[in-house]
Amino acid sequence: MKNIFFAFALLISVTVSFSQNNQLWKGYFSYNEIVDVASATNKIYATTEVSAFYKDLLLSNVEQINSVNGFKPEDITTIYYSDSFKKFIAGNSNGLLLIVNNDGTVVTKVDIIEEVPVAPNVKRVNSFYEYDGKLYISCDYGISVLNLATNEFVSTYFIGTSGEETKVYQTTVYNNELYAATQEFGIRKATVTNPFIYDFSQWQTFDTGYWNGIATFNNQLVAMNTNSKTYRYNGSSFVEILNHNQAGLTLKVNEGYLTVTTQNNVYVLDDSFLQVAHVTNIPDYSVIFTAATVVNDHVFIGTATNGLFSASLSNLFSFENLSPDGPVRNYIFRLKKAPNYLWAVYGDYTRLYNPYPLDEFGVSKYSGEDGWELLPYDDVYQAKSLSDIILNPNNANEVYIASYFSGLLKINGDNITLYNDQNTGSNGLESLVLSGNPNYVDIRINSLAFDREGNLWMSNAFVDRGLKVLRAGGQWQSYNLSNVLTNIATGRYGSMAIDNNLTKWLPTLNDGLLAYNETLNKYIVLDTETANLPDNDVRKVVIDNNNQLWIITYRGLRILYNVSTFLQQEELTTNNIVIQEGDLAQELFYQQSLIDIEVDGANRKWISVADGGVFLVSSNGQQTIYQFNKNNSPLPSNNVNDIEIDGVTGEIFFATDKGMVSFLGTSTKPSDDLENVYVYPNPVRPNYVGTIKIAGLTDKANVKITDIEGNLVFETTSAGGTIEWDGTAFGKHRVASGVYMIFVATEDGMDTTVKKVMIIR
Question: Cross-referenced InterPro entries, in alphabetical order (predicted)?
Answer without folding.
Answer: PorZ_N, Quinoprotein_ADH-like_sf, Secre_tail, WD40/YVTN_repeat-like_dom_sf
